[in-house]
Amino acid sequence: MSTIQRICIFLSLFLATPPPFLATADGGRTTPLTAYDILQSYDFPVGILPEGVTHYEINGATGKFSAYFDGSCSFSLEGSYQLKYKSKISGYISKDKLTKLSGVSVKVLFLWLNIDEVKRNGDKLDFSVGILSAEFGINNFYESPRCGCGFNCKSISENRQRGGIRSNPFVSSI
């Protein structure tokens, strides 16, 4: 089978599966769901995913997903945690649980550790890195952080306007 034939078969299979859509009250379709909409449909807040997802894939039967960014993304939270998202993150999603995650890491002391699981337990999110875990209130994740500045983008912008910060120390090209 030639490469062209393989590509045609792949495209026909891919195009035969329509993307998830938001439904209207009369049963019609409107805009496609975003990766953030999908997170919410599994009972997760949008803020566990930074702004800037360019596209995503999800298998509704298995829960396997991938989300893509234009490049890697890193930022600091509360001055004590540094997070890094690769240009592709993937794993499995089910109600209140993300498992077998890849592409997301957190800096603990001097080590970068992969976040491999996130569970929601009521109004708390539990992030696991192997045998270690940390729990945070869900209210910390109601909005998505921005690459480079996390949730402190407004204060960084205000400092720049006052002449205090001239560059963004958190931007990464990793």
From TrEMBL:
Signal peptide: 1-23
Organism: Olea europaea subsp. europaea
UniProt xrefs under SUPFAM superfamilies: At5g01610-like
The UniProt record lists the keyword Signal: yes
Keyword tags: Signal
Name used for this protein in its record: Uncharacterized protein LOC111369854
Lineage: Eukaryota, Viridiplantae, Streptophyta, Embryophyta, Tracheophyta
InterPro entries according to UniProt: At5g01610-like, DUF538
Pfam families: DUF538
Domain of life the protein comes from: Eukaryota
